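Name: Probable DNA 3'-5' helicase RecG
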Amino acid sequence: MRPDVLNPLFAESQTLDGVGPKLAKPLEKLGLTRVRDLIYHLPERFVTRRAITNLDEAGEGEQVIVALTPTEHRSSRNPGRGPFRVLAQDDIGNICAITYFGRASYTGKKQLPVGEKRWVAGRLDRYGDMLQIVHPDHVEETSDANMGRMTEAVYRLSEGLTQPRVASLVEQSLSKAPELPEWIEPGQFEREGWPSWQEAVKEAHKGPNEAARNRLAYDELLANSLALLLVKADSRRRKGQALQGDGSLRAKLDLPFEMTGAQKRSVTEIEGDLQQEAPMLRLLQGDVGAGKTVVALHAMLIANEAGKQAALLAPTEILARQHYETLRKMAAPCGVEVALLTGRAKGREREGLLMGLIQGEIDILVGTHAIFQDSVTYKDLGLVVIDEQHRFGVAQRLALAGKGKRAPHTLAMTATPIPRSLTLAQYGEMDVSRLDELPPGRQAIDTLVFPQSRLDEMVAAVGRHLASGSQAYWVCPMVRENEVTDIAAAEARYAALSEHFGDAVVMVHGQLHPDIKDANMARFASGQAKLLIATTVIEVGVDVPSATLMVIEQAERFGLAQLHQLRGRVGRGSEKSRCVLLRGDELSETGKKRLTYVKESQDGFLLAEKDLELRGGGELLGTRQSGEAAFRIADLDQVQKLLPAAHADARLLMERDGGLTSKRGEAARILLYLFERDWGVQLLRGG
Ligand code: ADP
Ligand code: MG
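Structure predicted for Probable DNA 3'-5' helicase RecG:
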């Protein structure tokens, strides 16, 4: 049971004043479903604005407050897709465009009637020859109210939310933040001079405050370490079952290739673990294309040989399907029954599946998290394979997987090469097998950097590529740290490229209905569609060997690891593959370095280390929304700086008070609940 003191924090966001059904969706989109989430929705940055009397006084990129009078509303030819522009004039006749994408256009139209002076706060940019402000933070009729606030938090938004709205919800939420008992080790707490939890959350929203931010990050790291240690302790306590394969099923495999040394070594390591009674907790780390699936198949066949079932958990529906198809084909000669279960299976089909599982007719089940719902019962589950896309939450899934009395063995797979210093943070004390050798015959991917300004040439080159019968990916830029505008940009690019290539083009992005997304992916995978346009949501693991060209717009905005992952979508067949990184005009030093590293190396492990090196605290652009960030609050810098202490602290606490019953132990339980690591607490009870 959740401690009472936390109840106000776990109230639904909808209980706050001014939140109706209309706001529920955009809030949910950002994961802000409860008061707690809003409190932890820390500002991405703070802006300090300058009030100016006319636009001549400000430079490009500057945050300003200025009075403007709209002169014209200009809708795009493509309504609904944007952009919608309001042309407006300052006091001395300078013209500025105020630009909106998507549904924000309606807000803009309403707030900026022609002929009426308004105070506009936002970032002054340039669009072609014109000055522009995209999605202003505030539009007011008078210069007081919000306009008076020169330093202001900037929050991540989703479509339907504005800065002032989020700020007011955060403020309300903060007023509900209780005092909580201190869970940080007293020595540490004093040495650092950190504020209490309650003070820290308040300070963190007020202005840049390193101590407050560090404290909150430390909390998250401590909660994570503690939960991982609880999982580990629990799995040590629980009995698993030793799985002894006789090789009979594996002998029937008829693979068209020889396994690499790294694959064989990993299988041997896994086989050794499975023979132990203690449940395996192993991470299979291997770059994109390293061949993790075959290793997983071997592991699952060992379980089958031992008379047990195996399950493979994929992060998305698309990936689950793809794994299912691959495994079914590969395992066909072995005569094992492979089935697919996703959230979409309904009625008879679902019942049939569930029956097959209970009765043990299904040997290998592939699916999304649906495979661990309470209603799903296995006859005898011996092994769980987790194909992990997002690093965050692995441990939780491990705990999930271990619901039964006898813990199944667990193999987690990740395509993201994680720097050694971070493995501990993400995966706790798991054993690691590394696939550090690519299958033979892989050709290096030619990586080129090309200025975005030569987009036309790029389009022509893509045209030639498609005409030759090959396929290609086109990854759209992250325009701002804001999903709305990113999708607007993707839609615009889709419209433009469709004009060139007609219905050979399909698009996937996060806001499409899953059915449409799947259908589009399927058209691309089957070769019907030749060009796939995507935001960064291209599913990791999507495997279309005949796609041999990848274009990434504004590549400098992506993290190194992310670029590497994206590039890994090509170079999967025997054909020569290319990756073109389009770079914007304003290239930071870090951006430049990133592109150079990606161009020069294809070693995921190396790039991951470089990525960590390059990302100072400030350069986290885009990592959060891409799901790449491991933690919600701690950034990479903080992880590196604070994790060792947090981990040591957690260990010490576990050694002294493994049941978390002391005063500080009780506080630590609150911490676990606060970060929803309460499955960790539940494990305590099991033991
Ligand atoms: P990932 O590690 O990214 O999941 P996959 O398991 O999807 O990689 O493998 C990528 C491709 O390489 C697949 O088409 C697979 O059949 C092939 N493959 C895997 N192992 C080998 C090997 N040892 N030799 C040749 N091809 C292989
Ligand atoms: Mg894979």
